[in-house]
Amino acid sequence: MPYEVELKFPLTDKAALLARLQALGAEESGERRQSDAYYNHPIRDFAATDEALRVRADGDRVCFTYKGPKIDSETKTRREVEVHIHSTPEHAGELLQALGFNHVAEVRKSRRCFRTTARSAPVELTIDSVDALGEFVEIELVVTQDEEIPAARDSLLALAKKLGLSGQERRGYLEMLLAQPTDSN
What we know:
25% of the residues lie in helices and 44% in strands. It is an alpha+beta fold. The mean pLDDT is 94.
């Protein structure tokens, strides 16, 4: 069962982060635009159960992603199941709505991607510019065994410290977006 072990931080000094990534030998793998449409279950409130279901459009790739509840109080570690589909995000959304799922919101971001290692494990690091929220840094590892989670968490925490990241944000972008005050005008 795959688990995504993730840390997220607000980006306060991009130049310093880029310099530290270069010093670590991180490889940049490009920039892309992503759009994530989130849906709520018809009889189970995902906000209350700390779950998420999204349809992600990433260039010409589209996938369904289920994220289970966070299982760690220090990181955003959670079970993640991703299914790639050969369709459009609009058709995927139509399918979910036909099944009774409710569209909640859309998160749009530009993502600059890097790859590095932490204690010999491959790490993906992204600099995200999220519409209506600002810039953030995410670092993550994917593990397949429960017993791998503590070591992955410790590796990411050590890497975050080495990169000078602080002020960890445990909420997802959807949760942050929905927490913003609405404009009543």
